[in-house]
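Following up on my earlier thread - several people asked me to post the actual chain instead of describing it. Fair enough. Here it is, all 267 residues.
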Amino acid sequence: MVNPVAVWVDAFTDTPFAGNPAVVVLLERPREEAWMGSLAREMGVSETAFVTPRPDGFDLRWFTPAVEVELCGHATLASAHALWQEARVAPGASIRFHTRSGLLGAARRDPWIELDFPAAPPAAEPAPAGLAEALGAEPRWSGRSRTGDLLIELADEATVRALAPDFGRLAAVAARGIIVTAGADAGAGHDFVSRFFGPNVGIDEDPVTGSAHCALAPFWAERLGKSEMIGYQASQRGGIVRVRVEGDRVVLGGKAVTVLRGELEGT
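Reply from S.P.:
Thanks for posting it. Predicted structure:
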Protein backbone atom coordinates (compact mmCIF):
# COMPACT_ATOMS: atom_id res chain seq x y z
CA MET A 1 0.00 0.00 0.00
CA VAL A 2 1.32 3.43 -0.96
CA ASN A 3 1.69 5.88 1.91
CA PRO A 4 -0.30 9.11 1.48
CA VAL A 5 1.78 12.14 0.55
CA ALA A 6 1.37 15.19 2.79
CA VAL A 7 2.39 18.64 1.56
CA TRP A 8 2.59 21.70 3.82
CA VAL A 9 1.71 24.77 1.74
CA ASP A 10 1.57 28.46 2.61
CA ALA A 11 -1.33 29.87 0.58
CA PHE A 12 -2.12 33.38 -0.63
CA THR A 13 1.57 34.23 -0.54
CA ASP A 14 4.77 33.44 -2.41
CA THR A 15 6.87 33.83 0.73
CA PRO A 16 7.39 30.93 3.15
CA PHE A 17 5.98 31.48 6.66
CA ALA A 18 3.48 34.07 5.46
CA GLY A 19 -0.07 33.73 4.14
CA ASN A 20 -2.17 30.86 5.50
CA PRO A 21 -0.69 27.39 6.07
CA ALA A 22 -2.57 24.27 5.02
CA VAL A 23 -1.61 20.61 4.95
CA VAL A 24 -2.72 18.79 1.79
CA VAL A 25 -3.04 15.00 2.06
CA LEU A 26 -3.04 13.26 -1.33
CA LEU A 27 -4.93 9.98 -0.98
CA GLU A 28 -5.25 7.01 -3.31
CA ARG A 29 -8.60 5.96 -1.83
CA PRO A 30 -11.28 7.45 0.43
CA ARG A 31 -10.55 7.36 4.16
CA GLU A 32 -12.78 7.33 7.23
CA GLU A 33 -14.03 10.64 8.59
CA ALA A 34 -12.70 9.86 12.08
CA TRP A 35 -9.21 9.25 10.64
CA MET A 36 -9.28 12.55 8.74
CA GLY A 37 -10.42 14.42 11.84
CA SER A 38 -7.67 12.84 13.94
CA LEU A 39 -5.02 13.70 11.39
CA ALA A 40 -6.25 17.30 11.19
CA ARG A 41 -5.88 17.59 14.97
CA GLU A 42 -2.38 16.12 14.70
CA MET A 43 -1.40 18.63 12.00
CA GLY A 44 -2.74 21.53 14.08
CA VAL A 45 -3.06 24.07 11.23
CA SER A 46 -6.27 25.94 10.48
CA GLU A 47 -7.17 23.52 7.66
CA THR A 48 -6.05 20.08 6.53
CA ALA A 49 -7.31 19.16 3.05
CA PHE A 50 -7.89 15.59 1.87
CA VAL A 51 -7.78 15.03 -1.89
CA THR A 52 -8.97 11.77 -3.49
CA PRO A 53 -8.97 11.10 -7.25
CA ARG A 54 -12.17 10.28 -9.13
CA PRO A 55 -12.79 9.84 -12.87
CA ASP A 56 -13.83 13.46 -13.46
CA GLY A 57 -11.55 15.24 -11.02
CA PHE A 58 -10.96 15.01 -7.27
CA ASP A 59 -13.00 14.77 -4.11
CA LEU A 60 -11.91 17.45 -1.65
CA ARG A 61 -12.72 17.74 2.05
CA TRP A 62 -11.45 20.25 4.63
CA PHE A 63 -11.01 19.79 8.39
CA THR A 64 -9.98 22.24 11.09
CA PRO A 65 -8.51 20.72 14.26
CA ALA A 66 -12.09 20.75 15.61
CA VAL A 67 -14.62 20.22 12.78
CA GLU A 68 -15.15 19.53 9.09
CA VAL A 69 -16.08 22.70 7.18
CA GLU A 70 -18.29 23.31 4.16
CA LEU A 71 -15.93 25.59 2.24
CA CYS A 72 -12.28 26.64 2.49
CA GLY A 73 -10.43 28.82 0.03
CA HIS A 74 -6.82 28.69 1.15
CA ALA A 75 -6.75 24.89 1.47
CA THR A 76 -8.31 24.61 -2.01
CA LEU A 77 -5.56 26.86 -3.37
CA ALA A 78 -3.00 24.73 -1.53
CA SER A 79 -4.56 21.51 -2.91
CA ALA A 80 -4.37 22.76 -6.50
CA HIS A 81 -0.77 23.84 -5.97
CA ALA A 82 0.14 20.42 -4.53
CA LEU A 83 -1.55 18.50 -7.36
CA TRP A 84 0.41 20.39 -10.00
CA GLN A 85 3.64 20.19 -8.01
CA GLU A 86 3.29 16.43 -7.51
CA ALA A 87 2.43 15.94 -11.22
CA ARG A 88 -0.97 14.49 -10.35
CA VAL A 89 -2.37 16.98 -12.89
CA ALA A 90 -0.72 18.13 -16.14
CA PRO A 91 0.84 21.64 -15.91
CA GLY A 92 -1.67 23.32 -18.25
CA ALA A 93 -4.75 21.39 -17.16
CA SER A 94 -7.48 22.84 -14.97
CA ILE A 95 -8.77 20.98 -11.90
CA ARG A 96 -12.31 20.05 -10.87
CA PHE A 97 -12.94 19.61 -7.14
CA HIS A 98 -16.12 17.92 -5.90
CA THR A 99 -16.93 19.29 -2.45
CA ARG A 100 -19.71 19.80 0.08
CA SER A 101 -20.18 23.25 -1.48
CA GLY A 102 -20.54 21.89 -5.00
CA LEU A 103 -18.12 21.88 -7.91
CA LEU A 104 -15.10 24.17 -7.56
CA GLY A 105 -12.53 24.89 -10.26
CA ALA A 106 -8.84 25.77 -10.25
CA ALA A 107 -6.69 27.03 -13.12
CA ARG A 108 -3.06 28.19 -13.41
CA ARG A 109 -2.45 31.76 -14.47
CA ASP A 110 1.27 31.85 -13.62
CA PRO A 111 2.36 32.97 -11.12
CA TRP A 112 -1.25 33.02 -9.84
CA ILE A 113 -3.77 30.27 -9.23
CA GLU A 114 -7.42 31.16 -9.85
CA LEU A 115 -10.27 29.44 -8.00
CA ASP A 116 -13.88 29.45 -9.20
CA PHE A 117 -16.12 29.65 -6.10
CA PRO A 118 -19.80 30.38 -5.44
CA ALA A 119 -20.55 33.98 -4.47
CA ALA A 120 -22.05 34.45 -0.99
CA PRO A 121 -23.29 38.05 -0.87
CA PRO A 122 -24.24 39.03 2.68
CA ALA A 123 -27.78 40.06 3.54
CA ALA A 124 -28.13 42.91 6.00
CA GLU A 125 -29.15 42.00 9.54
CA PRO A 126 -28.62 43.66 12.92
CA ALA A 127 -25.39 42.89 14.72
CA PRO A 128 -25.94 40.31 17.49
CA ALA A 129 -26.08 41.57 21.04
CA GLY A 130 -22.61 41.74 22.57
CA LEU A 131 -20.73 41.62 19.27
CA ALA A 132 -19.46 45.21 19.43
CA GLU A 133 -18.21 44.64 22.99
CA ALA A 134 -16.51 41.38 21.98
CA LEU A 135 -14.79 43.03 19.01
CA GLY A 136 -14.02 46.28 20.80
CA ALA A 137 -15.38 48.31 17.86
CA GLU A 138 -18.77 49.59 16.71
CA PRO A 139 -20.12 48.14 13.43
CA ARG A 140 -20.91 50.53 10.62
CA TRP A 141 -22.85 47.76 8.77
CA SER A 142 -23.64 44.15 9.58
CA GLY A 143 -24.98 41.20 7.64
CA ARG A 144 -24.71 37.45 7.19
CA SER A 145 -23.60 35.38 4.21
CA ARG A 146 -25.20 32.10 3.20
CA THR A 147 -22.15 30.26 4.55
CA GLY A 148 -23.21 31.40 8.03
CA ASP A 149 -20.49 34.00 8.49
CA LEU A 150 -21.24 37.44 9.88
CA LEU A 151 -19.77 40.31 7.89
CA ILE A 152 -19.09 43.47 9.86
CA GLU A 153 -17.97 46.71 8.24
CA LEU A 154 -15.91 48.97 10.49
CA ALA A 155 -15.00 52.63 10.19
CA ASP A 156 -11.59 52.37 8.52
CA GLU A 157 -8.53 50.26 7.83
CA ALA A 158 -6.76 51.34 11.01
CA THR A 159 -9.68 50.09 13.15
CA VAL A 160 -9.59 46.67 11.46
CA ARG A 161 -5.85 46.33 11.91
CA ALA A 162 -5.96 47.37 15.59
CA LEU A 163 -8.69 44.97 16.71
CA ALA A 164 -7.88 42.78 19.72
CA PRO A 165 -11.10 40.80 20.25
CA ASP A 166 -12.22 39.04 23.39
CA PHE A 167 -12.36 35.52 21.90
CA GLY A 168 -14.23 34.08 24.87
CA ARG A 169 -17.07 36.54 24.29
CA LEU A 170 -16.79 36.20 20.52
CA ALA A 171 -17.35 32.43 20.79
CA ALA A 172 -20.81 33.15 22.21
CA VAL A 173 -21.85 34.79 18.92
CA ALA A 174 -23.90 32.43 16.72
CA ALA A 175 -21.81 32.31 13.53
CA ARG A 176 -19.34 30.03 11.77
CA GLY A 177 -17.01 33.02 11.65
CA ILE A 178 -16.91 36.78 11.92
CA ILE A 179 -15.49 38.72 8.98
CA VAL A 180 -14.50 42.30 9.76
CA THR A 181 -13.71 44.65 6.91
CA ALA A 182 -13.18 48.26 5.87
CA GLY A 183 -12.25 50.17 2.76
CA ALA A 184 -8.54 50.59 2.19
CA ASP A 185 -6.58 53.70 3.01
CA ALA A 186 -5.83 55.96 0.05
CA GLY A 187 -2.79 54.75 -1.86
CA ALA A 188 -2.67 51.43 -0.01
CA GLY A 189 -2.37 49.28 -3.13
CA HIS A 190 -5.46 47.27 -2.27
CA ASP A 191 -9.19 48.01 -2.29
CA PHE A 192 -10.28 46.68 1.09
CA VAL A 193 -8.92 44.99 4.19
CA SER A 194 -10.37 42.22 6.30
CA ARG A 195 -9.76 39.87 9.20
CA PHE A 196 -11.51 36.60 10.05
CA PHE A 197 -12.27 35.28 13.53
CA GLY A 198 -13.60 31.74 14.00
CA PRO A 199 -13.48 30.61 17.64
CA ASN A 200 -16.58 28.46 17.06
CA VAL A 201 -14.65 26.27 14.59
CA GLY A 202 -11.46 26.15 16.65
CA ILE A 203 -9.62 29.07 14.99
CA ASP A 204 -9.37 32.32 16.94
CA GLU A 205 -8.00 34.16 13.91
CA ASP A 206 -7.50 32.68 10.45
CA PRO A 207 -4.51 34.27 8.68
CA VAL A 208 -5.99 34.49 5.14
CA THR A 209 -9.51 33.23 4.44
CA GLY A 210 -10.41 32.55 0.82
CA SER A 211 -14.03 31.61 1.55
CA ALA A 212 -14.60 34.93 3.34
CA HIS A 213 -13.85 36.67 0.05
CA CYS A 214 -16.91 34.98 -1.48
CA ALA A 215 -18.86 37.45 0.69
CA LEU A 216 -16.34 40.30 0.64
CA ALA A 217 -16.10 40.44 -3.16
CA PRO A 218 -19.81 41.11 -3.88
CA PHE A 219 -20.05 43.37 -0.81
CA TRP A 220 -17.24 45.65 -2.00
CA ALA A 221 -18.11 45.34 -5.71
CA GLU A 222 -21.47 46.96 -4.96
CA ARG A 223 -19.90 49.74 -2.87
CA LEU A 224 -16.88 50.46 -5.05
CA GLY A 225 -18.61 50.00 -8.41
CA LYS A 226 -16.09 47.56 -9.87
CA SER A 227 -15.91 43.81 -10.34
CA GLU A 228 -12.14 43.27 -9.99
CA MET A 229 -10.43 44.17 -6.73
CA ILE A 230 -7.52 43.35 -4.46
CA GLY A 231 -8.16 42.40 -0.86
CA TYR A 232 -5.58 42.36 1.92
CA GLN A 233 -6.23 40.21 4.99
CA ALA A 234 -4.50 42.07 7.79
CA SER A 235 -3.61 39.20 10.13
CA GLN A 236 -0.16 38.88 11.66
CA ARG A 237 0.96 36.72 8.70
CA GLY A 238 -1.06 38.67 6.13
CA GLY A 239 -1.97 37.81 2.56
CA ILE A 240 -3.26 39.15 -0.77
CA VAL A 241 -6.42 37.82 -2.46
CA ARG A 242 -7.39 39.00 -5.92
CA VAL A 243 -11.14 38.83 -6.51
CA ARG A 244 -13.33 39.03 -9.60
CA VAL A 245 -17.12 38.90 -9.43
CA GLU A 246 -18.72 37.01 -12.32
CA GLY A 247 -22.48 36.79 -11.77
CA ASP A 248 -23.15 34.28 -9.01
CA ARG A 249 -19.50 33.19 -8.92
CA VAL A 250 -16.34 34.73 -7.48
CA VAL A 251 -12.89 34.08 -8.93
CA LEU A 252 -10.23 34.14 -6.20
CA GLY A 253 -6.60 34.61 -7.22
CA GLY A 254 -3.63 33.77 -5.05
CA LYS A 255 -0.11 32.40 -4.96
CA ALA A 256 1.23 29.44 -2.97
CA VAL A 257 4.57 28.05 -1.85
CA THR A 258 5.52 24.61 -0.51
CA VAL A 259 7.25 24.57 2.88
CA LEU A 260 7.46 20.83 3.64
CA ARG A 261 6.70 17.51 1.92
CA GLY A 262 6.60 14.00 3.36
CA GLU A 263 4.79 10.69 3.63
CA LEU A 264 2.43 9.53 6.35
CA GLU A 265 3.75 6.39 8.05
CA GLY A 266 1.64 3.76 9.76
CA THR A 267 -1.69 5.13 8.55
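Residues 5-117+253-263 form a domain with the Diaminopimelate Epimerase; Chain A, domain 1 fold (CATH 3.10.310.10). That should answer part of your original question.
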